[in-house]
Specification:
- 4 copies of one chain form a homotetramer.
- By secondary structure, chain A is α/β, with parallel strands linked by helices.
- Chain A folds into 2 domains: 93 residues, Aspartate Aminotransferase, domain 1 (Alpha-Beta Complex); 242 residues, Aspartate Aminotransferase, domain 2 (3-Layer(aba) Sandwich).
- Chain A is 41% helix and 17% strand.
- The first copy, chain A, has 14 helices and 13 strands.
- In chain A, the strands form 3 sheets. Chain A has a 7-stranded mixed β-sheet, sandwiched between helices.
- In chain A, strand 5, helix 7 and strand 6 form a beta-alpha-beta unit.
- In chain A, helix 1 crosses helix 11.
- The first copy, chain A, is globular, with a radius of gyration of 20 Å.
- The mean pLDDT of chain A is 97.
- Chains in contact: A-B, A-C, A-D, B-C, B-D, C-D.
- The interface between A and C is medium-sized, with 21 and 21 residues.
């Protein structure tokens, strides 16, 4: 069985395991206060062009989302996000468990717009009963989105400007950030991501690390006592060095971009194949997730050899599915799949 | 600098890194539903003599404590524990953040007794205003305790019987379980730990793993939807296999006991040295944490070469400190310390 | 200014004030354990045909909703309700503040159907990732709804049967229950309300009391320690007798039905006037809230003499507004309004 | 049976009921935005000498405590208070239910000192692991305390100065404030209470109102969006006027002081009787709560005619009990009790 279900099927890039092995018996302080974390922080700040940013490392995405969001919002505030946003649909109510409502905005492709944020804000404050309604307190976006789509620089700057004007911190979930940055379809750089958000994270789990997300806070107002929040929410890894070592390995000499770029390239080969064969795509993704629509009969044939995720039934006969590539996808597996797509009946 | 501050200074036992490397490109399902986790579950159940137990793997201790406790208590219930208990003092209010009061019982050495639990229960229910008071809903103990002490079999069974009689699930925090089980001072076995608690966890982070805690639930009433809780609290690792692989390596052929036993032996050498030199011990520990009381002048000398933790000032001149050994402690470091203790002025 | 904004503009029915005055110096135990509360409980159980029900009194609606819901749900569960439901839109996130997601279902008129509940349930459990998604744990409906609409007996029994089958407690918010029961458009009785829900409340605040909601729990599984929840959520009134006295006065000899019936009748006079004049109604309400659509120019004329609530702008020229009658509405005010409607330009 | 159990046994001062009756059919906006509330706000600000203070009315004490505290603390902060404080022992964990730890300080008589606050603060920040420990975020005191004791002006100003220096808002629970202000044993005035706290409340429930607590926030940094918090926590009364009317009646012409003063005087007569008879007092209270220690045999005699609260057993033969007077206590009941105390065997 060749798996394309998701982008966390394997362990980590071998250089990470090597580095962990190499440093294994070095004694370091715990909780992210070691030299590897410090060096990784420097690399990140340099790469993102934000020398004064505040960087902390957490273990996973849900944990990071709930920690960041709970650290920003006041008790009666909620977080604006696309109705498709991970925090709204796939985190078992982790945000609500911290006491906050997720204020979902309609979205067809996983993205929301500056205009939607402005409207939600205006609607709230125009309501004579606004004290009876959850107050919008920040904005959450994912980039790439859960649908593989990307914000353009114009869209992101518009969002950021609107958020800044309205006093709503903009938080970018970059669980798959590498696949976005290396997409052919993007005009956003590391520096743009840092410049046009208040806080974002660099996903490690899905881009070559065993696990780990690096939170970068560029708005100094949001950093105070953030480590208390990490500890309280269960995200402070005792051996924090493991996170520092991994991000250092990924980021200090371009490994992150290299492996993400490769995965995107493989995804583009799949995308082209789907398009050539005439399969429509549910979302027009230029990242590592592809969402073709196939007849169920053909999906059944593919399932004998490949695993992938059923996304949604389109009708009785057709379904949209998701194929993911990742830093670990083998060219030979892509080729096998392309070849088998050629021969579907 | 030779560090004895804590038991999470290094990475992991080399066999764990080897196993992670060896399995690195195997594709597995995520979230702890892979074969390594399944095999680790079987090993644990076999070792603990609880074939029907329910086993899940989490990343760290605070996360595990808050997830287990929040899954058991009703909103108006609290958890009884020693005032020295980790959840009461060192988790930044993680339990309270889930909405529950920690009901602290006085303790001199980190342990609480069946009689204290019975009394807290009786006091609550005897109060005419009990509806205005947080209801005791479960009991938390750590073994070894934060002070290095151990429950005897008699004490643990008494606690368990009292808890069972009162309908209060007994939860044992085994962050350092290995060091307890391998202590010369214990009459408790793996099977006893499983038999005389309702839920406990086997600490990995402090006993040879990179990270990870294996929760074992023996009371079937406490297992329902537990994985929802893990996900909601940010504890469900995407690459859950990492936990399965680590616990399998540690537990399938005695590595866990071997490395924990070695660390306890080293701690005993330190303990004997302290006693021989006439240093009093704050707690009478037979595990990997030792709490000698030394003059501050001598501590200053030691600090030039060693790091350890200041536990508490006894008076103007003397302080209690903590020395930890671990699975990674080198015999040569123990010998150096012993020799330097011999030569303190 | 004659106000039709809402149904809590005045104090209380005079008989309530008389009864409070009459009993003022009687000494009673606090917290709802007095004889007035007990007698009110008996009257309610008798009236609803549920001799074994459990009855408690709370002060207000938001408080009641959050207390009941938090007492039923497990931490990872959410409450299904119409997207228009009070808990979803007008309680400042009170439910989320207890840690739970509100699972909003689309609704045009404030009601949801058994089929929607079934589908939400099926969708959840059919999802392979259901552990990553908030689990539906109960169903909340309001009757009358926030839009003045009513469930039919057929609809309510279908909902109840579906909920019972799926193990989802059905909670009916009866903040305006009296206006529903006395509507010409209903085939539901007190006994039906009690028979086809697991827990509901009888609204006092909007139907003649100074304040107060009487929670009736008919499913014995939901009563355990409910008073702890009330106290913890700040809903346990020290002088609980005030609630008992009010509900006793309202319910023991038909006052509640009398005043609610009168208000509905007045609302029907308004409704007929709107219809006769050719004003469309946003919702087809047979209760005390009416939602006519008028030209903004005419609304401006009305605003000189009357206050009412802007509900929603239909387009540039027309708006839907809300007129409420209540137990305190004067016939002369209704007549004045009808007459002025006749003369609008 | 003559009851001295507590200070909320009866309804309200008759002038309150009269005023409620008189205003009953006036139509007002809801939620505390009516003219009665506004006038009561003015009276309070005038009386307390804080023209710029922010005043809101809530229904009960637990609700007020949790709303104020949750509005001030950040998620990882706790509230310092006496271990005897109401929020620590008698509110079913309402504070913890908002996610915050109550940081209890030892107290013999219900009071805490500036030195204790300073020490708790210093201890926290001196700890190298302070990020793992709940951060002190504010201070809660009650005045009079749960034990009937009172802060002196010197003690309160010292507390306030320490709190201000440390950045910890000082919150005074004045559920029984009237009985404190009218005590012969106090040197604190209304203006002092307002001047030496950041937020406090004037208790209505126990001092002549049907219910209600008036929160006075003198630190402008604590007022932002406070009404959202009230609504979210279920404390925003629909007919907010009821609170305004009551506080206006109590405060506009000295009724509050008059009835509180009378109750304290009655309590002093009891106190003197106990002392004359040689009964020791558990706490030296100059307010409406008295805590004499009597032989159980005599308590049994008293119980035939009087009810009072068992406070604590002193030993096998003696118990401390609580007698409360209130605004509603009759002189004849005091005289009967004194006479019966004279004749105890």
């Amino acid at each position: 069985m060749i798996r394309f279900n998701c982008d966390y099927l394997e362990g980590a890039h071998p250089r990470i395991l090597e580095k962990l092995t190499e440093t294994n018996f070095v004694q370091t302080p715990g909780y992210g206060e070691d030299e590897y974390c410090d060096r990784a922080r420097e690399v990140i700040k340099e790469k993102c062009g934000v020398p004064n940013a505040y960087v902390q490392f957490l273990v996973g995405g849900t944990q990071t989302n709930m920690t960041v969001i709970a650290s920003i919002l006041k008790p009666y505030q909620g977080v604006l996000c696309a109705n498709t946003g991970h925090i709204n649909v796939h985190e078992t109510g982790a945000i609500e468990a911290t006491g906050h409502k997720v204020l979902a905005l309609p979205s067809e492709n996983g993205k929301i717009t500056a205009a939607q944020v402005q409207e939600a804000y205006d609607t709230h404050w125009a309501d004579a009963s606004h004290e009876h309604i959850v107050q919008p307190g920040m904005v959450y976006i994912s980039h790439p989105t859960e649908n593989g789509t990307l914000y353009t620089k114009e869209e992101l700057t518009a969002l950021y400007e609107t958020c800044s004007k309205l006093g709503l911190p903009l938080f970018l979930d970059g669980a798959r950030l590498g696949y976005g940055l290396m997409s052919k379809g993007t005009d956003l750089t590391w520096k743009d991501i840092a410049a046009y958000t208040d806080v974002f994270y660099i996903g490690g789990t899905k881009v070559g690390a065993l696990f780990g997300e690096a939170v970068v806070i560029t708005d100094p107002a949001l950093t105070k006592d953030f480590r208390y929040m990490i500890k309280q929410r269960g995200g402070m890894l005792a051996k924090g060095r493991l996170l520092g070592i991994q991000f250092l390995t990924l980021l200090e000499d371009g490994l992150y971009e290299e492996i993400a770029g490769k995965a995107v390239e493989q995804a583009m080969r799949l995308k082209n194949t789907f398009l050539e064969k005439g399969y429509p795509l549910l979302y027009d993704s230029y990242t590592n997730q592809q969402f073709p629509i196939l007849p169920n009969s053909q999906l059944k044939q593919l399932e004998e050899k490949y695993s992938f995720e059923l996304w949604t039934a389109m009708d009785e006969e057709y379904s949209a599915v998701r194929f993911c590539t990742s830093w670990a996808t083998k060219d030979e597996d892509i080729e096998a799949l392309i070849s088998d797509l050629d021969n579907l009946e």
